[in-house]
Structure formats: structure tokens, C-alpha cells
Task: inverse folding
């Protein structure tokens, strides 16, 4: 579990959760398209929309992290700063590798 300073505020949680619920609805719509044997191009268009929505959710989480958590880094020791920055770089790398 992450340290408390990494937690989102309630309004930020609601924003992210709302995005995720919309994505969940898009996924259910994709399932229905496949079940109804919709044309592959229609399905791929919806997959693209879901992918974009997931990336936007990730970008929002990154924004929140940058705003909330990275400002806290200035209060840490040099070793802790480096560790936090390394964790963030790794997370960004994983996020950018999604496709």
C-alpha cells in the first residue's frame, strides 16, 4: 500500500471513478457488439475509443500524482527523492508502453 501522501482527494477519486465507469460501459458495449456479430471495423472503432478512454484516465491519474505527490518529494531526503522519482519514471514507462 502506498503512503498516505499518495492518496487522491475525494473529488479526484470521483473524477477517476466516473471515467472508469464510462470505460466499463464501453466494454459492455464492446461485448454486445461481439455477441451480435457486428462488423469487425465497428468493433475495432469501439476498441480504439476504449483505449483512448483508458489513456485519458491514466493521464488524469498522472496529473493528480504530479500535483499531489511530487510536491511532497521536496520534503524528503535525497535517497527518498531518488526512490520516488525512480518509481514514478517506471510507472510512466509502463503507462507509455500500453498499446
Result:
Amino acid at each position: 500500500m502506498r503512503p498516505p501522501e499518495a492518496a487522491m482527494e475525494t473529488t479526484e477519486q470521483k473524477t477517476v471513478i466516473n471515467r472508469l465507469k464510462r470505460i466499463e460501459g464501453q466494454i459492455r458495449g464492446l461485448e454486445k457488439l461481439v455477441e451480435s456479430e457486428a462488423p469487425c471495423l465497428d468493433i475495432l472503432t469501439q476498441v480504439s475509443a476504449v483505449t483512448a478512454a483508458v489513456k485519458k484516465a491514466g493521464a488524469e491519474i498522472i496529473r493528480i500524482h504530479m500535483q499531489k505527490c511530487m510536491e511532497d518529494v521536496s520534503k524528503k531526503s535525497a535517497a527518498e527523492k531518488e526512490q520516488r522519482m525512480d518509481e514514478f519514471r517506471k510507472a510512466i514507462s509502463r503507462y507509455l508502453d500500453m498499446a
About this structure: Residues 40-73 form the longest helix (34 residues).
